[in-house]
Amino acid sequence: MAEKLAPEKRHKFVHNGQTVFEWDQTLEEVNLYIKLPPNIHPKQFYCKIQPKHVEVGIKGNPPYLNHHLTCPAKTDDSFWTLEDDIMHITLQKRDKGQTWSSPILGEGQLDPYSTDLEQKRLMLERFQQENPGFDFSQAQFTGNCPDPRTFMGGIRTG
Q: Where in the numbering of this chain does the CS domain appear (predicted)?
């Protein structure tokens, strides 16, 4: 049932007509997807993930991305992989349930409507995790959606 509440599509950050990265999020993580340029050996790519910063590039060149994150990440649980010409960066949210409007501070921010949809989906994902016997995939909110991180005393950990 939880897969019914998974992100349906990735958000795109486009600059000057070129997709810089795509991304999605769950209650616990934010995923960035960067299409790699052709004809470059995978060992030449690098990614540095810090609690509030990410840097991505090709060794010996200026970084492709060198930006602050919108929200802090847990570096011990964050990682990156190369899959089918895509760099996939998984950022573990420091604050589970926090709705990120973009992975990169000031770049590709979601509009208020899309941010609201993300918050609603994350709230339903939280309900699903806390009540695994129920199916919340068709549930809807009327009015403002509560913050999934803080609603009713916050997310239970452990």
A: 16-104
The DSSP string of 90-138 is EEEESSTTPPPS-SBTTSSPPPHHHHHHHHHHHHHHHHHHH-TTS--TT
Token pair, residue 92, equals: 């573990």
Q: What is the pLDDT of residues 2-41, one digit of tens each?
A: 566 567 789 999 999 999 999 999 999 999 999 999 999 9
Contacts of 124 (CB under 8 A, 6+ apart): 5, 136, 137, 139
User: For residue 141, is it within any domain?
Assistant: yes
pTM of the entire predicted model? 0.87
Distance CA 69, CA 131 (A): 31
User: What pLDDT score does 100 carry?
Assistant: 94
Does residue 156 form part of some domain? no
Q: Quote the DSSP letter at residue 27.
A: S
Distance (Å, whole) CA 123 – CA 99: 9
